[in-house]
Amino acid sequence: MAVPAPVVILLAAGASSRMRGADKLLEPVAGGPLIAVQAGKALRAGLEVIVTLAPDRPAREAALRGLPVRIVHVERAAEGIAASIRAGVAAAPEGAAVMILLADLPDIEASDLRHLADLHRADPAAILRATAEGGRPGHPILFPADLRGDLCRLQGDVGARDLLRREGGRLRLVPLAGSRAVTDLDTPEDWAHWRRDGDK
Fold first, then answer.
1. Quick check: 100 and 140 in contact, CB under 8 A?
2. Domain residue spans of the chain
3. Strands 32-33 and 28-29, how do they pair?
């Protein structure tokens, strides 16, 4: 029996609180706002995409207009990342694994997401976590379908850290090229440095 493709849950309900009034998910990257570029990468990987959004961020939703993604509003987004994960997982098709992708990882490529999806088909019971080339753990993280109930019980702003620790025997680290699994940009200085180093 074929293993269903994982569903990408693009976490985009954060407040960009360290951007001093700007919205990092609307920063221009590769000709478009980051949130739309990230969703486009997941779509090019051939995967269904769910985007979690806070209801008070209409500009983010507008940036996704025209893309075949499912938008899920996170009413309790201020609680932290767990609320976004719960909302996204609850909206995913029954029986599908979920690939949790942070929206502020601009160096992630569609090929990275496709690679994780292929690995999942070969080993559907494994938790797959992307790492930097040197082994530093990052994102995305692909959780098998049987852990969706655990993801729906997460609380607070620590994500699935405890779940990953508990299920460590199933964890498989997947190195991606360079540091793209760990390059998240939270401040204006982060963005300036990233653009300067990459001539973006």
1. yes
2. 7-198
3. antiparallel
* pLDDT single digits (tens) 16-72: 677 776 789 999 998 899 999 999 999 999 999 999 999 988 999 999 999 999 999
CATH number of 7-198: 3.90.550.10
Residues 6 or more apart whose Cβ sits within 8 Å of residue 38: 10, 12, 101, 103, 105, 106, 108
Which residues does residue 152 pair with via DSSP β-bridges, in sequence order? none
Q: What would the DSSP string read from start to end of the chain? A: -PPPPPEEEEEE----TTSTT--GGGSEETTEEHHHHHHHHHHHTT--EEEEE-TT-HHHHHHTTTS--EEEE-TTGGG-HHHHHHHHHHHSPTT--EEEEETT-TT--HHHHHHHHHHHHH-TTSEEEEE-TT--EEEEEEE-GGGHHHHTT--TTSTTHHHHHHTGGGEEEEE-STTTTT----SHHHHHHHHHHHT-
CA distance 164 to 118: 21
Environment class of 184 (CB within 10 Å of its CB; exposed 0-12, middle 13-18, buried 19+):
middle
The token pair that represents 85 in the structure block: 């994960």
